[in-house]
């Protein structure tokens, strides 16, 4: 029990961050992270100790998150984020507060745009850009053909580009 508790402490933030990116809501992400560790605890006997633990936990969290999104639909975060308005600075200087603010505002718009993606596109996008997984890894973990992963990622990028077109045009 102590060993499992230390594993939870070690991976809790990474699992929560993945769940938060998938759901966009703190409470849901918190519940899914907890559910992930409960499922992992009861499935420990099936875990092969020769493999790293985090990819196994990530798979459990991802499946839980996708099931959540299918069953309940996407939750709206408490803070609504608008997509329009300000430009993205091209190269923010650390000593310029205005540029740091513009970059933070653009990041908030980007996060809001990612939240608006359909769950199939969002899961591929999150795994690729937040978890730094290769197309092949995403294909294996989601049990999808490589071409499907690539097309979903392409659709996600195009949708984000359309949603953020105003900001990107002003920042260019």
Class inferred from helices and paired strands = mainly alpha
So what's the CATH class of the largest domain? Answer: Mainly Alpha
Largest sheet: none
Query: In what range is the share of β-strand residues?
Result: under 5%
Backbone CA Rg: 18 Å
Low-confidence stretches at least 5 residues in length (pLDDT < 50)?
A: 74-91
DSSP strand tally: 0
- Per CATH, the superfamily of the largest domain is Winged helix-like DNA-binding domain superfamily/Winged helix DNA-binding domain
The outline comes out as globular
Given the structure, what is the number of helices? 8
Describe the protein's topology:
Blueprint: H1 2-23, H2 26-42, H3 53-72, H4 97-115, H5 119-129, H6 135-142, H7 146-163, H8 165-171
Task: Give a written overview of the molecule.
The chain has 172 residues and is an all-alpha fold. It folds into two domains: 2-72, RNA polymerase sigma factor, region 2, helix turn helix motif (Rna Polymerase Sigma Factor, Chain: A, Orthogonal Bundle), CATH 1.10.1740; 97-171, Arc Repressor Mutant, subunit A. 71% of the residues lie in helices and 0% in strands. It is built from eight helices and no strands. α1 (2-23) packs across α2 (26-42), α5 (119-129) crosses α7 (146-163) and α6 packs across α7. The longest helix is centred in the first third of the chain and has 22 residues, at 2-23. The protein starts with a helix and ends with a helix. Mean pLDDT is 80; it is low at 74-91.
Summarize the structure.
This protein is an all-alpha fold. It contains eight helices and no strands. It is globular.
């Amino acid at each position: 029990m102590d060993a499992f508790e230390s594993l939870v402490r070690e991976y809790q933030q990474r699992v929560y961050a993945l769940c938060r990116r998938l759901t966009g809501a703190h409470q849901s992400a918190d519940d899914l992270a907890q559910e992930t560790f409960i499922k992992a605890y009861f499935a420990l006997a099936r875990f092969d100790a020769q493999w790293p633990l985090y990819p196994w936990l990530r798979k459990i969290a991802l499946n839980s998150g996708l099931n959540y999104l299918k069953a309940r639909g996407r939750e709206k975060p408490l803070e609504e984020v608008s997509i329009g308005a300000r430009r993205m600075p091209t190269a923010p200087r650390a000593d310029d507060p205005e540029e740091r603010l513009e970059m933070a505002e653009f990041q908030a718009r980007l996060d809001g745009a990612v939240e608006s993606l359909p769950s199939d596109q969002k899961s591929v996008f999150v795994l690729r850009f937040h978890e730094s997984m290769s197309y092949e890894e995403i294909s294996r973990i989601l049990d999808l053909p490589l071409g499907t992963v690539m097309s979903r990622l392409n659709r996600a990028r195009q949708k984000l580009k359309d949603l953020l077109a105003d900001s990107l045009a002003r920042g260019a």
